[in-house]
């Protein structure tokens, strides 16, 4: 299963909770196992309405040899600077918690900031910029419009609305979009920032932390953790669980990629044509 959270996400919860810090530090593998269980718990509520594979994605360290898809999120780090090494222009190094790029290279020497360009802090997040706007099932499209849809680029062939790009009557055959051999400081291909849904991140942390305390002593879970998990009552009408139940029932709509309806209508001259079957 993909891992949405990263280790740094726990800092927001552990800064003022020494007990939680100890639980996580003493049981790193157990923490990751419980985190995966918490993620599965969330997926069970969301899977009927949303494309969970697009929500719970991996957040990995950037690798220049890897191939990335649109919106894929990475942490960027670099090799530590070495005073004994020789560097050439455009080399990247890590120095005092920051990533730098060599201006013209240098022979072995102590780090000299005048020979390097500051790029960003270590483990800054970047995601792959989309080549086109994402397909919107509520939008109207005309011939020639281009969209991005589930890792592919499509061109509209005929005016339509609510017709998924996989329908070849209205859209061109998709072209897969991937990115390789491009460093995250190339702002034509990468966007600096965290594109994860922060509400999902928050609730996933809340569920995971509640279960972490329960794994140590289920009778001694702090009230704050129980409240953030299920409202701290038998009805589970608060916290993360209540939000998930409301989303699953349709009481609220989350800002998440929705599963498109199987039927749609195209627009031609202001009138509808027969229903089309959409798949993805």
Overview of this protein structure:
The chain is α+β, with helices and mostly antiparallel strands. Among the domains are: 1-57 and 196-249, no CATH class; 78-122, Ribbon (Seminal Fluid Protein  PDC-109 (Domain B)), CATH 2.10.10. The chain has helices at residues 11-14, 18-26, 28-46, 52-55, 198-216, 223-230, 239-249; strands at 59-61, 67-69, 73-76, 92-95, 98-102, 116-121, 124-128, 140-141, 146-149, 152-155, 160-161, 175-176, 178-180, 190-192, 263-264, 267-268, 271-272, 276-277. A hairpin with a 2-residue loop joins strand 9 (146-149) and strand 10. Helix 3 (28-46) crosses helix 5. The protein is flat.
Identify the notable features of this structure and list them briefly:
single chain; 280 residues; alpha+beta; Seminal Fluid Protein  PDC-109 (Domain B); four-stranded mixed β-sheet; three-stranded antiparallel β-sheet; 26% helix; flat; disordered C terminus
Can you give me a brief rundown of this structure?
This protein is an alpha+beta fold and 280 residues long. The chain is 26% helix and 21% strand. The relative contact order is 0.15.
